[in-house]
């Protein structure tokens, strides 16, 4: 473990993101301001302008262009970074898919914010959930130290599996809240994260078309070599995501050896080993759930937290293992798959189906558009679910917490 | 036997004729020329060339006794429509097994 030259700074989540991008020596930054992400790129702009980081800061007129610039720069071999929130991510949508299909190791910071309409700048996780099927890796952070550490890990993961990574952290709750964050020395980060070696080719002597029109069936190229059709390329993309958990876990462990902190790889538990009821969530809500669990334990209820760190790829194997001894799992989604239920809840049920391990799963919708979530809300929900489970009620419709309709 | 051997992670090709695929594969009918009716052949010198001018793929040669590059001809039949002497007809390709 490297212990020299670490410094503890008091940083907002957004400052932790900008500091991580700097220490990862990103070469191109392109982003468009949107609340609550704006101070990430404001800080980076200052860092670059002051000569502390040798990088191109490309000012653009929209989020669509921001990611288009990142795609171009990543294609020619640069380590690139962008950040956005909510409607900015929605405006990027086409390029979000392109970055993934082109298998570019772009790392994006997403300060989670509610989607309009109605207009809101406050937190929930609808924005990242809306992009869950675009083929990115999505990692959720619970505090500002995890944000910093996850960004350093994210470049290594992305550049290993050739899939872009969206690092998600709750807007305002983390983006604008200061916490102590241990910042490692530049040499330690350099040793952990070597320069990016691109898989795309830019050589004037051997020009290439990248991501050209690709027909339905495999075809022979000009040299007579049989090349992928569209479906084969998509299969490889899925294969990369299915292989990603091993890489994500290994990178987290390697980070732990180098810097003294690991964050649980794909998913983590708190007081979870003997828990009858697990409170499952992603992001900062897990910290509130930890408070609820401590209080429930004081009341003699065997409760635990199941923290979902990586949402895509979805950690089916880890979740089946983590829930096998629980009686009931209460899933708290800060977003909604409208017309169905909370996306994390639905995905957990799908993962458990046919696994042979079948705890009761109850879904709760909470904290939409910045609605405050208190530990006592989570405690009440946990008790409701446990009572229902003890009374043999195995299913119930998603319940909206603190919705005052 | 599969495409994995090409070693590509994302779609990539070298610029060359037909790099996006041999579009002749799309064809269900192909144009056949009757030289006895072709105006240029009958005149024995460059003439007419409507088929060359209107071919959207540029696969018909501008010479007396036109030839079609069937590797890329999609079988659209525009040459048949524009030929003033009815020298071209579309012939069905054999059905795939």
Question: Please, could you describe this protein's structure?
Answer:
The complex is a heterodimer of chains A (405) and B (97). With 405 residues, chain A is of the alpha/beta class. Chain A contains 12 helices and 18 strands. Chain A has a 7-stranded mixed sheet, sandwiched between helices. In chain A, strand 10 and strand 11 (226-227) form a beta hairpin. In chain A, helix 1 runs parallel beside helix 6 (144-161) and helix 6 packs across helix 8. Chain A starts with 6 loop residues before the first strand and ends in a 5-residue tail after the last strand. With 97 residues, chain B is an alpha+beta fold. Chain B has a single domain (30-97), classed as Alpha-Beta Plaits (2-Layer Sandwich). The two termini of chain B are 20 Å apart. Classes of the chains: A alpha/beta (405), B alpha+beta (97). The interface between A and B is medium-sized, with 31 and 20 residues. Strand 9 (209-210) of chain A pairs antiparallel with strand 1 (12-13) of chain B.
List key phrases describing it:
heterodimer; A: 405 residues; alpha/beta; Rossmann fold; 2 domains; 7-stranded mixed sheet; 12 helices; B: 97 residues; alpha+beta; two-stranded antiparallel ribbon; 3 helices
Query: What is the total number of structural domains of chain B?
Result: 1
Q: Outline of chain A, from the CA principal axes?
A: globular
Structural class per helix/strand content of chain B?
Answer: alpha+beta
Q: In order across it, which strands form the biggest sheet of chain B?
A: 2-3
Low-confidence stretches of chain A: none
The CATH class name of the largest domain in chain A reads: Alpha Beta
Q: Which second-level CATH architecture of chain B applies? A: 2-Layer Sandwich
Percent of residues in β-strands of chain B: 5-15%
- The CATH topology of the largest domain in chain A comes to Rossmann fold
3D shape of chain B: elongated
Helical/strand content category of chain A: alpha/beta
Number of strands of chain A: 18
> How would you spell out the order of helices and strands of chain B?
EEHHHE
The share of residues in helices of chain B is 10-25%
Order of helices and strands of chain A: EHEHEHEHEHEHEEHEEEHEEHEEHEHEHE
Oligomer, anyone? heterodimer
CATH-derived topology of chain B: Alpha-Beta Plaits
Characterize the main sheet of chain B.
2 strands, antiparallel
Average pLDDT level of chain B: 91
């Amino acid at each position: 473990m490297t212990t020299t030259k670490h410094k503890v700074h008091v940083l907002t989540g957004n400052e932790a993101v900008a500091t991580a991008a700097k220490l990862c020596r990103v070469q191109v930054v392109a982003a468009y301001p949107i609340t609550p992400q704006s101070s990430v790129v404001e800080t980076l702009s200052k860092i670059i302008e002051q000569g502390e980081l040798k990088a191109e800061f490309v000012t653009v007129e929209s989020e669509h262009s921001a990611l288009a610039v990142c795609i171009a720069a990543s294609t020619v071999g640069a380590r690139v970074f962008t950040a956005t929130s909510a409607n900015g991510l929605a405006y990027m949508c086409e390029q979000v898919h392109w970055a993934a299909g082109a298998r570019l190791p772009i790392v994006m910071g997403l300060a989670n914010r509610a989607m309009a309409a109605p207009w809101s700048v406050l937190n929930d996780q609808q924005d990242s959930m809306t992009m869950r099927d675009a083929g990115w890796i999505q990692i959720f952070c619970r505090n500002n130290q995890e944000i910093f550490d996850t960004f350093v890990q994210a470049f290594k993961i992305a550049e290993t599996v050739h899939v872009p990574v969206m690092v998600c952290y709750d807007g305002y709750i983390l983006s604008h809240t200061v916490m102590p964050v241990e910042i490692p020395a530049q040499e330690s980060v350099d040793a952990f994260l070597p320069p990016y070696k691109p898989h795309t080719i830019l050589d004037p002597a051997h020009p290439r078309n990248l991501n050209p029109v690709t027909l339905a069936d495999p075809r022979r190229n000009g040299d007579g070599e049989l090349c992928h059709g569209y479906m084969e390329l998509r299969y490889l993309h899925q294969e990369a995501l299915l292989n990603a958990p091993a890489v994500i876990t290994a990178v987290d462990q390697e980070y732990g050896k180098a810097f003294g902190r690991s964050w649980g790889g794909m998913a983590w538990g708190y007081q979870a080993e003997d828990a009858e009821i697990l409170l499952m969530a992603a992001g900062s809500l897990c910290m509130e759930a930890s408070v609820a669990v401590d209080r429930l334990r004081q009341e003699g209820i065997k409760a635990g937290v199941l923290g979902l760190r990586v949402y895509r790829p979805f950690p089916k194997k880890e979740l089946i293992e983590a829930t096998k001894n629980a009686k009931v799992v209460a899933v708290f989604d800060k977003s909604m798959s409208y017309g169905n239920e909370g996306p994390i809840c639905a995905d957990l049920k799908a993962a458990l189906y046919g696994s042979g391990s079948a705890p009761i799963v109850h879904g709760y919708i909470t904290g939409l558009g910045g609605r405050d979530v208190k530990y006592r809300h989570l405690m009440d929900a946990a008790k409701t679910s446990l009572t229902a489970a003890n009374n043999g009620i195995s299913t119930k419709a998603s319940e909206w917490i603190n919705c005052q309709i | 036997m599969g495409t994995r051997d090409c070693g590509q992670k994302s779609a990539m090709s070298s610029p060359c004729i037909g790099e996006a695929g041999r579009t002749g594969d799309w064809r269900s009918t192909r144009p056949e020329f009757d030289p006895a009716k072709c105006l240029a052949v009958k005149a024995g010198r460059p003439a007419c060339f409507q088929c060359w001018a209107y071919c959207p793929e540029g696969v018909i040669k501008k010479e007396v006794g036109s030839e079609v590059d069937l590797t890329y001809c999609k079988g659209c039949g525009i040459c048949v429509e524009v030929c003033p002497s009815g020298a071209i007809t579309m012939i069905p390709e054999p059905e795939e097994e």
